[in-house]
Amino acid sequence: MSGKPRLTYLNGRGRMEPIRWLLAAAGVEFEEVFLQTKEQYDKLIKDGLLLFQQVPLVEIDGMKMVQTRAILSYIAGKYNLYGKDLKERALIDMYVEGISDLMQMILMFPFSPPDAKEKNLDSIKEKATNRYFPVFEKVLKQHGQDFLVGNKFSWADVQLIEAILAVEEKIPAVLSGFPQLQAFKTKMSNMPTIKKFLQPGSPRKPPPDDHYVETVLKVFKR
């Protein structure tokens, strides 16, 4: 065992991508195991590696962790990305949960039936521009700082830059009415660890394509 965290999931974004983002932002190298067949997934369950019979699975510090939220909060705490006190942690949690609601729509989008894609895209745009992004625009404007919480880089910042880039892939002009978020995106994208993660050849996964959707349906079919 190299000591690096070991991530087991499919070779695509899904629920593992925010974990990859957070580790990368913290400057942590990791190894990946990609599931390609239902048999591989069933073996993990049979071997007792998946507490709730679900991936992501992250092996870190001698633990076999499942449940995305638990994994993310452990990594955030371990690498000092989770605020300085309970109040800051509560704010980070609130922001992360809000961003996760938006990301859930993006996560499910590739699995939309063809006739629902346009409607679902409109829904993502509407929620991003009217419900979620205005919150972060206002926060950044009100406190005049570079980061969302405590003027210090945190898990909330990582989740937000991931969400901004994911929405922009689908709706390129989505930030046109959000100057604070435009500046935030530029600043975050130039942080050394994030800049490295955004380069070609990094562990960041491309937007899901038909092959990824087929693999997900094959591996997780009941």
From TrEMBL:
Assigned keywords, A-Z: Transferase
GO biological process, one term: glutathione metabolic process
Family from the record: Belongs to the GST superfamily. Alpha family.
Name this polypeptide is given: glutathione transferase
GST N-terminal domain location: 3-83
All residue ranges annotated as the GST C-terminal domain in the record: 85-209
SUPFAM superfamilies linked: GST C-terminal domain-like, Thioredoxin-like
Gene3D superfamilies: 1.20.1050.10, Glutaredoxin
EC number: 2.5.1.18
Broad enzyme group: transferase
GO molecular function, one term: glutathione transferase activity
